[in-house]
């Protein structure tokens, strides 16, 4: 979604609500409904921001806390190493002990598990191994879960530069989110102070190709300044002009379809009217470069896919050159 133009400033004046009479119970109930538009408009801070992020999901941007996640894994890893060392010592002590049942712990699970009936018992040489094992099992589970969760969080996409910039503009607007950044308490104030760093993720990534990112977004801003601000109405809730990402993506799709139809046809026509063989090879090479560049800029493809598709187009051109009689052909 593109948010274009300056926001429409809303008046901060609040109209007092008259007291509710007993006969107005139904009206009072309606005013208290969560979906009531007036009530939503009066909300500020986190509740208002939650409304905005749920309505425009491409702005569901949150901190990843990479450093803290890494620190948590390191501390859990260190604790496991200490418990492992303690476990090895207690296992050796029990194995070398002459008293039953400690000397049988290494081969008798029932006696080992029976050494500690509950976690509130005092630590003794007889139950230390099993108590250490219970703690080790708990920390290992927490560590493995943290590893998996951190892997999943790391795989989440980062928000685009445009979305970060627009989101930063929204949360700092005094007439919409009531300056979420400025009004948060204590250390919360720096949650979004550096939206340009890589410690943010989005829950709903929007795949944006280079053409949409570099050209269509700029055209949208130009269109808004010249035509859009006079033809479109701003969003009634946010007071800004909204151009959905779906509309921008559709425009990019139209351009892609037109070019995908024109390039092969124009390549064949150019080859047909190129008289020399060297010229036709150069034309084929030029169209292969053009095709690869358009693939990179108009679509979201991998390098291997660009190589394969460009090679396929060049192969078709070679077949056309070798099997077609050209007018006024020269060696």
Properties at a glance:
single chain, 331 residues, mainly alpha, 3 domains, 59% helix, membrane, DUF6594, transmembrane, DUF6594 domain-containing protein, transmembrane helix
Tally of discrete structural domains: 3
Strand order of the largest sheet: 1-4
Structural class: mainly alpha
State the helical fraction. 55-70%
Q: Please give the radius of gyration in angstroms.
A: 33 Å
Order of helices and strands: EHHHEHHHHHEHEHHH
End-to-end C-alpha gap: 55 Å
Number of helices: 12
**What's the rounded overall pLDDT mean?**
75
The low-confidence parts are 4-35
According to DSSP, the number of beta strands is: 4
Q: Give a quick account of the main beta sheet: strands, pairing sense, barrel closure.
A: 2 strands, antiparallel
Strand content: under 5%
Shape: elongated
Region (Disordered): 1-24
Transmembrane segments: 254-274, 281-300, 306-326
Keywords: Membrane, Transmembrane, Transmembrane helix
Domain DUF6594: 46-318
What's the helix and strand layout?
Blueprint: E1 2-4, H1 25-31, H2 37-42, H3 45-55, E2 61-63, H4 66-96, H5 109-113, H6 128-154, H7 161-171, H8 180-183, E3 200-202, H9 210-231, E4 241-243, H10 245-272, H11 277-298, H12 303-323
Antiparallel strand pairs: 1-4, 2-3
Helix pairs in contact: 4-6, 9-10, 10-11, 10-12, 11-12
């Amino acid at each position: 979604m593109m948010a274009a133009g300056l926001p429409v400033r809303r008046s901060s004046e609040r109209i007092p609500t008259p007291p509710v009479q007993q006969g107005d119970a139904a009206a009072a109930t309606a005013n208290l409904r969560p979906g009531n538009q007036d009530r939503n408009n009066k909300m500020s801070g986190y509740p208002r921001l939650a409304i905005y992020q749920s309505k425009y999901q491409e702005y569901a941007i949150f901190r990843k806390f990479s450093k803290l996640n890494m620190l948590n894994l390191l501390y859990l890893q260190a604790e496991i190493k200490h418990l492992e060392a303690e476990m090895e010592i207690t296992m050796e002590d029990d194995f070398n002990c002459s008293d039953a049942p400690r000397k049988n712990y290494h081969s008798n699970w029932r006696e080992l598990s029976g050494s500690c009936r509950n976690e509130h018992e005092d630590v003794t040489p007889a139950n230390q191994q099993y108590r250490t094992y219970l703690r080790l099992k708990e920390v290992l589970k927490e560590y493995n879960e943290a590893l998996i969760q951190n892997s999943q969080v790391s795989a989440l996409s980062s928000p685009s530069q445009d979305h970060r910039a627009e989101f930063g503009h929204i949360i700092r607007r005094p007439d919409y989110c009531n300056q979420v950044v400025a009004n948060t308490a204590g250390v919360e104030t720096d949650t979004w102070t550096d939206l340009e760093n890589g410690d943010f993720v989005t829950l709903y990534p929007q795949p944006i190709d280079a053409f949409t990112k570099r050209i269509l977004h700029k055209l949208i801003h130009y269109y808004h300044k010249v035509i859009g601000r006079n033809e479109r109405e701003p969003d009634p809730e946010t007071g800004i002009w909204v151009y959905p990402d779906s509309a921008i993506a559709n425009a990019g799709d139209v351009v892609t379809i037109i070019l995908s139809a024109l390039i092969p046809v124009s390549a064949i026509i150019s080859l047909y009217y190129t008289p020399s063989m060297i010229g036709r090879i150069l034309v084929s090479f030029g169209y292969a470069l053009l095709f690869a560049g358009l693939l990179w800029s108009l679509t979201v493809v991998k390098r291997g896919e660009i190589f394969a598709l460009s090679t396929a187009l060049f192969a078709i051109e070679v077949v056309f050159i070798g099997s077609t009689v050209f007018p006024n052909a020269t060696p």
